[in-house]
Design brief:
Radius of gyration: 21 Å
CATH topology of the largest domain: Rna Polymerase Sigma Factor, Chain: A
Structural class: mainly alpha
Number of strands: 0
Helix content: over 70%
Order of helices and strands: HHHHHHHH
Strand content: under 5%
Number of domains: 2
Family: Belongs to the sigma-70 factor family. ECF subfamily.
GO molecular function, one term: DNA binding
Largest sheet: none
Protein name: RNA polymerase sigma-70 factor
InterPro entries: RNA_pol_sigma-70-like, RNA_pol_sigma-70_dom, RNA_pol_sigma70_bacteroid, RNA_pol_sigma70_r2, RNA_pol_sigma70_r4_t2, RNA_pol_sigma_r2, RNA_pol_sigma_r3/r4-like, WH-like_DNA-bd_sf
Pfam family, one: Sigma70_r2
Shape: flat
Distance between the termini: 59 Å
Length: about 180
């Protein structure tokens, strides 16, 4: 079964890689970046149960995935450039002081307190104790997938919970609002 899946995946890869690379190249005009985008799409494609997930054609799915991945990368690069420009213009930001740092820590603790205990423990072990997912799984006697699920849930929760606070902080730092 796995051999059949691998062979079919390889066929799809060989059939579409070059045209997807050309498509991604139009976004970046850089062959290396285009290759990375297409490889990332195929990696995600492989990680999913792609034969069951695709409701259209594989080609349509892959083109849409390359399009989305390209737009996401362009957006990340744009934000990164904006940040770098800001940093170069304001080499020393003195408005970000201990008060902001302690307030962020307090907001993080409040956000973490809203998580289920196991989820919070996994997050803290990963981010504060800097343990790898496999180490966390072994220590808590959980499967690796369960640890990954807890991390996904925790990060999603923190992203939602801290969004307003972090947006306000960034605007304050950038524009002195």
């Amino acid at each position: 079964m796995l051999l059949h899946k691998e062979k079919k995946f390889e066929e799809v890869f060989r059939a579409h890689f070059r045209e997807l690379h050309n498509y991604a190249y139009r976004f970046f005009e850089d062959t290396n970046i285009a290759e990375e985008v297409v490889q990332q799409v195929f990696l995600k494609f492989w990680e999913r149960d792609w034969e069951k997930v695709i409701h259209t054609s594989a080609k349509a799915y892959l083109y849409r995935s390359v399009y989305n991945e390209s737009l996401n990368l362009l957006k990340r690069n744009s934000l990164k450039k904006q940040y770098e420009t800001y940093q170069s213009q304001h080499a020393s930001i003195e408005t970000y002081n201990d008060d902001s740092d302690s307030e962020l820590r307090k907001q993080l603790q409040v956000a973490l307190s809203h998580l289920p205990e196991k989820c919070r423990t996994v997050f803290e072990m990963s981010r504060f104790q800097e343990l790898k997912n496999q180490e966390i799984a072994s220590e808590l006697n959980l499967s690796l997938k369960t640890v990954e699920g807890h991390m996904t849930k925790a990060l999603r929760h923190l992203r939602i919970y801290l969004f307003d606070y972090l947006t306000g902080l960034v605007l304050t730092l950038m524009y002195g609002l």
